[in-house]
Design a protein that fits this description.
The chain has 231 residues and is of the alpha+beta class. It is built from ten helices and 13 strands. A hairpin with a 2-residue loop joins strand 3 (35-38) and strand 4. The protein starts with a strand and ends with a helix.
């Protein structure tokens, strides 16, 4: 069985017989194990890992759209997030005092985590601000990528991010795709996804230290281990 131009897999003889029919000559002298080949030669473990990784690579653009805003401009989403162990979706806005209180903690954490392992986490900021100017001011200088403002807030396209209740009521906009997907009802929120599969790995790990935003925030035990290790 050929997979692509360079890869093939040899299956146990019982599977071959069931696939090819009873008249096919195959028997127990064939290997009982699954074997991988690259260009006609037995594959190494690294070859197999590379192939399986390519096959299983999650398409982040299917969730977040084709591009992300980075410090050097717009870049393809899948390029920005390729090879990351975790992708953290950070929903916030400059109007929100709790978001402003949480941002320094997240920023400091991500700087420390990526200093130790650049592939550990990529944060994608998803704004709920009502103007491009507010978005740019809040995003400038941050150590993470961002969903473009128009896509997040639904300017000329369906909204993907978090749409505030008052905005929905005043404009008739629907809730954003990701807002609905993750059941978001308040900000800030940080959802950490598996970098290979897109599955949710960590959520609800932001802990308020008091009744006011000025009291500060911290991570609880549900946060990613690599984040907790640098606190």
């Amino acid at each position: 069985l050929k997979l692509g131009s360079n890869y093939a897999i040899a299956y146990p003889w019982q599977v071959l017989r069931s696939c090819l029919g009873p008249r096919t000559r195959c028997g127990p002298n064939m290997s009982e194990d699954l074997h991988h080949f690259v260009n006609g030669h037995a594959a190494t473990e690294a070859d197999v890992a590379d192939f399986e990784g390519a096959v299983a690579q999650y398409s982040w653009s299917s969730m977040l759209g084709p591009t992300l805003q980075t410090a050097s401009g717009l870049k393809p989403t899948d390029e920005v997030l390729s090879g990351k162990k975790q992708v953290a979706l950070f929903f916030a806005g400059s109007w929100c005092p709790w978001c402003r209180a949480f941002s320094p903690l997240l920023e400091d954490t991500i700087k420390k985590v990526t200093a130790g392992d650049p592939s550990d986490t990529e944060v994608v900021y998803i704004t709920s601000d009502e103007s491009m100017e507010a978005f740019n001011t809040y995003q400038t200088g941050k150590p993470w990528a961002a969903l473009p403002y128009e896509r997040s807030q639904g300017i000329g396209e369906p909204p993907v991010g978090y749409i505030r209740k008052k905005v929905r009521e005043e404009t008739g906009k629907p809730a954003g795709v990701l807002q609905e997907m993750f059941g978001l009802t308040a900000l800030p929120r940080c959802i950490v996804l598996d970098g290979k599969t897109g599955d949710v790995r960590h959520k609800d790990f932001i802990k308020d230290l008091g009744n006011n935003a000025s009291d500060g925030m911290e991570f609880n035990a549900s946060a990613p281990t690599s984040w907790l290790d640098v606190q």
